[in-house]
Description:
By secondary structure, the chain is of the alpha/beta class. The chain has helices spanning 10-14, 28-43, 176-186, 193-206, 216-228, 245-254; strands at 18-22, 47-51, 69-70, 79-82, 89-97, 100-107, 119-122, 130-134, 152-156, 167-170. It has two domains: 10-75 and 126-254, inorganic pyrophosphatase (n-terminal core) (Alpha-Beta Complex); 79-122, no CATH class. The model is unreliable at 251-266 (pLDDT under 50).
Amino acid sequence: xxxxxxxxxxxxxxxxxxxxxxxxxxxxxxxxxxxxxxxxxxxxxxxxxxxxxxxxxxxxxxxxxxxxxxxxxxxxxxxxxxxxxxxxxxxxxxxxxxxxxxxxxxxxxxxxxxxxxxxxxxxxxxxxxxxxxxxxxxxxxxxxxxxxxxxxxxxxxxxxxxxxxxxxxxxxxxxxxxxxxxxxxxxxxxxxxxxxxxxxxxxxxxxxxxxxxxxxxxxxxxxxxxxxxxxxxxxxxxxxxxxxxxxxxxxxxxxxxxxxxxxxxx
Length: 266
């Protein structure tokens, strides 16, 4: 089993209330992993959305959590930032002035005046508390400016470093779905049937049903996912009443388990 160093990721996740997962390049592997992560973060109480600039098609229809995926970013948010000491602000309020919204910032007694050059207005898409980039952001074109603000985690199967990332997890020997199969449990995030099913689908597509670009860890990741999709059963009382292997194989086939490759790879 792979043992990633996730110590620098944990503080960012634990302090977040909202998250945005960004998928620059569309593939079943990347989208399945992004949705698995989003589902897991939502179960932790972190409101999470997934953004990809590309439209998915029928090849993605079996993935869970597609309602969390969008190919547009909201640009309607308005953020007003004051470059002014917070301890000198007494109260912030708003009022309706004939249909016009007034934001009122009241400073403390004897505090310096807020100057115009201390007021910054931004109507670009606002960053979530936590932003996670799955792969290189260059294919986002203008949307790559997202990385200029926010707390970013960079996860990639390519050995590159990003200066804008506060934390990174890079594994050049694995597709996203393999990385997430090991990473989610390490982060203490939930790993339920829908999450495992997404990652298993991603693994099968990325490895062409475990026939190319595989390692022992690839099969181990598949086993972790497959085990999580099985119904929970109480421990058998004796060997005689254990589930027959034929039933396990049939159950696995229904859940989309990998079929044996007729061509030997040895």
